[in-house]
Design goal:
There is one protein chain. The chain is mainly alpha-helical. The chain is 87% helix and 0% strand. The chain contains three helices and no strands. Helix 1 (5-27) runs antiparallel to helix 2 and helix 2 packs antiparallel against helix 3 (60-88). The radius of gyration is 15 Å and the shape is globular.
């Protein structure tokens, strides 16, 4: 299964934008709802198929990178949900 170059470039661009947004969010205090949606929902949706395709193509460095970022995003989402319920109830 060959990764389509056009979609790969699109995903890579979106991943870089989301990572830059995460860095800016940690530096400056932006609107948490918008950043949270992008950071914790859209990033895993972009990275999970990339991790799966790179696993099938045996590109281990890309698989490791995509899997690690997917897990970090999912854990960040779980942490946000936990903090929301703890602080509101």
């Amino acid at each position: 299964m060959k990764i389509n170059k056009r979609f790969w470039k699109l995903r890579l661009t979106l991943i870089i934008v989301v990572l830059a947004l995460m860095i800016v969010n940690n530096t400056f205090n932006l609107n948490q709802q918008i950043v949270g949606l992008i950071q914790e929902v859209i990033l895993p949706i972009l990275l999970a198929p990339l991790a799966f395709e790179s696993y099938q193509d045996k590109k281990w460095w890309l698989f490791t990178f995509a899997s690690a970022l997917t897990m970090i995003s999912i854990l960040s989402l779980v942490q946000s949900i936990y903090h929301f319920y703890v602080l509101n109830y």
